[in-house]
Specification:
The complex is a heterodimer of chains A (about 500) and B (about 140). In chain A, α9 (about 235-240) crosses α13. Chain A is about 80% helix and about 0% strand. Chain A has a two-stranded antiparallel sheet with strand order 1-2. The relative contact order of chain A is 0.09. By secondary structure, chain A is an all-alpha fold. Chain A has 20 helices and two strands. Chain B has one domain (about 5-135). In chain B, about 75% of the residues lie in helices and about 0% in strands. Chain B has helices spanning about 5-30, 35-55, 55-60, 65-90, 105-135. In chain B, α1 (about 5-30) packs antiparallel against α2 (about 35-55) and α4 (about 65-90) runs antiparallel to α5 (about 105-135). The chains are: A mainly alpha (about 500), B mainly alpha (about 140). The interface of A and B includes residues 4 and 15 of A.
């Protein structure tokens, strides 16, 4: 069965979804989701272990070999991203039941799980596949299901948010498809490794072929829309703040990371090892990344809806990831890729605390946090630790990726950029502190006195993430070495 | 719609042929133009015509929304199940050659099952979408 792990990674959630459609019992569907998500996590760990020991794995769909058939190709980079996605899915699954009971209409609960699994299958498919068009198909699968998931939010504005995301997401996906189409027109192949080889063989990169430039212009803009890079981020705050909590946790921790992964794949694996990227696209993306860090953080400070505040903070954090990528040095890429993992840990955690607050208090407005430090001690303690990780305080996971980011900026001689990263962290201190101050130091809410600690099924996944945030802040060898290996692979140095 | 005699008679005459043509496109798809997607759409169009002539409630008695749900899900399961069956018989996912004694027969059987799955799901989802839109209350009333 070991040989089939790559395909099982995707088809388990893909077949779990129709199974969920067949039953009307929310409880049964929850059990299916748990089984699928946990086995997915185990599979991703086994795959990573195989890649670590034996090098890249290739799986031919239907037995058709590489440039003709669709292949799944797993190397150090996507093995790492697979772990991120499945880990979050595995933690969200047990969390989902109580949170969904509270937030979703009864008759929609069963379908909700089917959509969640479809979204999971799409994201895993994007990451695992070695075929550019297949990647697009999975991108649509995950996007379409996430539009529907966001629209299921209790507030009616979820519908507008989902529609906005639908329009922006479709424009992004279309641009990506045009980019892929142009690449196909140029090379006659869709296999990612073969694409890189063909481009190299025909000297298309060196001669600055115009179709190639156009293709990458479309791809970069489309992917920037999907990963919510600064001027193209407008869909994200609404989508995250009006979606059901479970959806926000899952999408915030995985969807944008997967888009960043796609950017890495196209810009490094296909364009070849980064030298060209650094000269062209890297320079273009640098400014939006810095703007994202600044403007995202500053706008976050002025938000009163805390879920929305965290969404803006996500935009800033995405800026850190793309900033690391634009450096295109081993250290910078390592920092960027590591931040994929660490950001999934901290944003997953922070949005889980929001879900718990919604579960008890029914609102995440700043004023409703008054007295929560006393009434929901475990949840708010988790929020504080997640916040510390977000700022990049030593001994938390966030510190490690910020540290490497600053280090690599200094290595490149980008002194102002290093300074800006530190100021970005200070801005994070401000917006996290607003919540902490309100929760712990402001007088209790006049009306709301009854809410108590969230149920165990919400607290447990939350605290697993708290421990992960602290553990990977103290002992970061494991994610760091995986990220470093992925970075070296992308840059083609000393694999 | 009870007074539209010509429409009713013509629809009744045509619907069996539309269904038959859908089945032809479905099962002939591996030799000629066609396949599961097209067949599913044609099959659905027959039911949509029926709904237009005889009304939503009558159509829902023919194919209920619950049945559509089950059909939509089982189509995907047929597709995925065929792939898994190939794996169980020692091939890769969707490696149809493993399904029968000879690779040729296997490929034939494989594509037949896959297209059946596609056709089922496309039919169900098409009708579901149509029911979804036509079932909405008129906002002016």
């Amino acid at each position: 069965m070991n040989a089939h792990l790559p395909v099982l990674q995707v088809i388990l959630p893909l077949l779990g979804a129709p199974l969920c459609m067949l039953t009307r019992s929310a409880r049964l569907n929850w059990l299916i989701t748990i089984a699928v998500s946990w086995s997915g996590f185990v599979i991703s760990l086994l795959l990573a272990q195989q890649v670590w020991v034996n090098g890249p794995i290739t799986y031919n769909m239907g037995g058709w070999v590489a440039p003709w058939g669709i292949t799944y190709h797993i190397d150090a980079l996507n093995a790492f991203v697979l772990i991120i996605v499945t880990m979050i899915a595995a933690l969200v699954a047990p969390y989902a039941r109580r949170s969904i009971q509270k937030e979703i209409d009864r008759h929609r609960q069963a379908v909700f799980y089917a959509l969640l699994l479809l979204c999971q299958a799409g994201l895993l498919g994007i990451v695992i596949t070695g075929d550019a068009f297949n990647m697009y198909v999975f991108l649509e699968l995950s996007s379409l299901s996430s539009y529907a998931l966001i629209a299921m939010g209790k507030r009616r504005r979820g519908l507008t948010a989902a529609f906005q995301y639908l329009i922006m997401g479709t424009i992004g996906a279309t641009f990506i498809l045009i980019g892929i189409g142009l690449l196909y027109n140029l090379t006659g192949t869709l296999n990612i490794l073969d694409l890189a080889e063909q481009l190299n063989k025909h000297h298309l990169i060196a001669t600055g072929n115009r179709t190639l430039i156009t293709a990458f212009a479309f791809l970069t803009v489309g992917l920037s829309l999907k990963l919510a890079l600064f001027p193209l981020h407008l869909w994200l705050p609404n989508a995250y703040s009006y979606a059901p909590s479970v959806v926000t946790i899952f999408l915030a921790a995985t969807a944008t990371k997967v888009a960043v992964y796609m950017l890495l794949r196209f810009c490094f694996t296909i364009l070849g090892h980064g030298a060209l990227f650094q000269m062209t696209l890297g320079k273009i993306i640098l400014l939006p990344s810095l703007c994202a860090i600044f403007i995202g953080s500053i706008v976050a400070i002025f938000q009163y809806d805390i879920k929305r505040m965290l969404a803006y903070s996500s935009i800033a954090q995405i800026g850190y990831m793309t900033l690391g990528i634009t450096m295109a040095t081993p250290l910078g890429l390592t920092a960027g890729i590591l931040h994929l993992f660490n950001h999934a840990l901290m944003k997953g955690l922070l949005f889980m605390t929001m879900g718990a607050v919604i579960y008890r208090v029914d609102s995440v407005y700043l004023s409703d946090f008054r007295g929560l430090g006393k009434r929901m001690p475990w949840t708010m303690a988790a929020f504080v630790i997640g916040g510390l990780s977000l700022m990049g305080v030593p001994l938390t996971a966030g510190f490690i990726s910020k540290w490497y980011l600053v280090k690599s900026a200094l290595e490149c001689g980008w002194w102002p950029v290093a300074g800006l990263i530190l100021i970005g962290s200070l801005l994070a201190v401000i917006y996290v502190w607003r919540v902490v101050e309100t929760a712990y130091f402001n007088p209790d809410h006049e009306l709301e006195q009854r809410s108590c600690e969230a149920p165990l099924s919400l607290l447990l996944p939350m605290w697993i993430l708290v421990i992960a945030n602290i553990y990977f802040g103290i002992n970061s060898d494991l994610p760091l070495s995986m990220a470093a290996r992925a970075a070296n692979l992308l840059l083609g140095v000393g694999v | 719609m009870h007074d539209h005699l010509i429409l009713r008679i013509i629809a009744k005459m045509f619907i069996p042929f539309i269904l038959l043509f859908a089945l032809y496109v479905q099962f002939h798809g591996d030799y000629g133009p066609g396949g599961g997607f097209q067949a599913g759409v044609i099959f659905a169009s027959a039911l949509i015509l029926y709904t237009l002539i005889f009304g939503l409630e009558t159509a829902m008695r023919v194919v209920s929304p619950t049945a559509l749900r089950i059909l939509a899900a089982s189509g995907v399961l047929i597709y995925g199940g065929t792939g898994v069956l190939c794996m169980l018989r020692g091939g890769n996912f969707l490696e149809y050659s493993m399904l029968a004694a000879t690779p040729l027969a296997g490929q034939h059987l494989g594509i037949f099952l896959i297209e059946l799955g596609v056709g089922t799901t496309v039919f169900a989802v098409m009708v579901m979408l149509f029911y979804g839109f036509s079932g909405r209350k008129d906002p002016s009333s």
